[in-house]
Amino acid sequence: MASARPIALGIAIALSIPGCSKVAQITAVKGPAGVSSTTAANVGFAVTVQPRAGEASPTDPASARDVASNLAPVVKIVSPSPSPLFMSFVVPGVRIRIMGADPDGPAGRPDEYRWLLIQDITLIQTYRSRPDSLRRLAAPDFEGWNTLGGNVTEFSLPNLEIDHEALLAIVATDRQGASTQTFSLSTNMLHMYVVYPNTPGPRIGFTSTGYSYEQAGGSLGLEPAVTFDVTAPQQIAGHWYAIDFPGEPSEFRYGIDLPADALGWDVVGRGWSSWKKNDTSATIAVEAGRVEPLLLTIQARDTGGLRSMLRVAFRPVAGGVAARTKAWADRR
């Protein structure tokens, strides 16, 4: 009786192997039906994998070690500050500031960032309750997500729907294909509520020895909110602050006796100081003989782009001889 010959079977299957083409040829050598279990156990499979042009083969020991030891990059939304408890109130076109790192990447930076803006309320609720479900759905390719270079530190969000919620998710990726491993509402996911551009922002307060005022709510009003009677001559050491929700830091600028056409938010110079977080004080000198009130104007803006303005008037109550009023900054 003739002996049974092994039969060679060529099978093409789809493989997903990082850094390689997705189709590999598997050749299986199998004996005919009825062979012993010992013979069946000796069935062999030969797999040939072709890497993409310019990339190392995953079967190369050095390449395998590189992939195994690669550290995934990370990214954090710096402002507005993400929170699992509160939404950030933002205006259309809000600037998003990010900070990323890749410990074993070139210059310690990620290769790219990928971000997605979600404005469907059902999806927002789903991903807020289960943040990692978004990663499981999108990784590793993050197809359809927007791309930023690894050197980017801020970008704007266009096309935000006013009076709606929105959810921003962002990941960092490296050249080996690794990406941020954890999705969290404390780091790389930002829950927002989009408000109208002219929505008042933080409440501004002013304080000095003998004088104090705090807005009941944010305001964009041009008229003085409060008038203090001041005995001239006098130097007033004024300080101001902002109360934001939910505690976002504000930037400030101020001016003294500004002309009416310099009160716009886009005006630069013309008596305005520069925007700074710590520009929160000035010394104001009202000289003897001043007749007209002196006007201090303070503007504040938070990280969501909401803005407020406070105008404080100081009315001289002594003297009658016209005199020039000077004001200068006492920077801290």
Report on this structure:
By secondary structure, the chain is mainly beta. The chain has three domains: 7-68, no CATH class; 71-194, Immunoglobulins (Immunoglobulin-like, Sandwich), CATH 2.60.40.10; 203-328, Immunoglobulin-like (Sandwich). Helices cover 9% and strands 38% of the residues. It is built from four helices and 20 strands. The chain has a five-stranded mixed β-sheet with strand order 5-11-10-7-8, covered by helices on one side. A five-stranded antiparallel β-sheet has the order 13-12-15-17-20, with no helix packed on it. A hairpin with a 4-residue loop joins β18 (294-302) and β19 (307-316). The longest helix is centred in the N-terminal third of the chain and has 9 residues, at 61-69. The protein starts with 6 loop residues before the first strand and ends with a strand.
Concise summary:
With 332 residues, this protein is mostly beta strands. The protein has four helices and 20 strands.
List the SSEs and their pairings.
Elements: E1 7-14, E2 23-30, H1 37-40, E3 44-48, H2 61-69, E4 74-79, E5 88-90, E6 95-101, E7 112-118, H3 121-129, H4 132-138, E8 146-149, E9 154-156, E10 165-173, E11 189-194, E12 203-208, E13 211-214, E14 226-230, E15 234-243, E16 250-256, E17 281-286, E18 294-302, E19 307-316, E20 326-328
